Amino acid sequence: MPTNILLLPTTISSFMNAISRSASEGATQGGGAVTIKALGCLYAVDPQEEAREEFAIPEIARLEDLLEVDGILLLLRDAGDATRAIRFLKQAANLPEHRLFIGKLGSVFVVPGAASQGPGDWGKELAYEMMKLGMIVAELPYRFLIGNELDGADGKAAAGPSLVQLVAARMHARHIAALTRRIDPERCSQAELIG
Question: So what's the architecture of 3-191 in CATH?
């Protein structure tokens, strides 16, 4: 039975749509049933981009959507995206059903080379917010990044994401879907000593 994976891009653009499609392909390869929804409070959508045929605006995610899936993969481009994602996760902690997050897998994919600075502290803060919810946090294996020239991958290029960025998104999502299949959230929550 496939696991349910929620991909959450934090920006609506043709660039992030391409990243989301690549991540969706990877999660499907890893055995996941994929849903793509976007976080609210997003950048304005450029009308020229919206008019393009391949451009699709995903449904906006609700906090409750996080409860209905087995794995969550945030797709980020920069520190502004991270700020919105952190706010979203902090709001999720206030849900009455917050205990249902225990044992779910959470992960953050930062588009390599797209941010002017690396993920740094905000990447750690996102992982920390997921762990506070009781999620198991996993990331893209470091070995994938070795040997790839990511500094030259400019995420703001009009041509769209580079091949390295697309492959990284696909591999990360496949890795997360495969790990999520190995985790039984029901067993994890039963093992917890919840008062």
Answer: 3-Layer(aba) Sandwich (3.40)
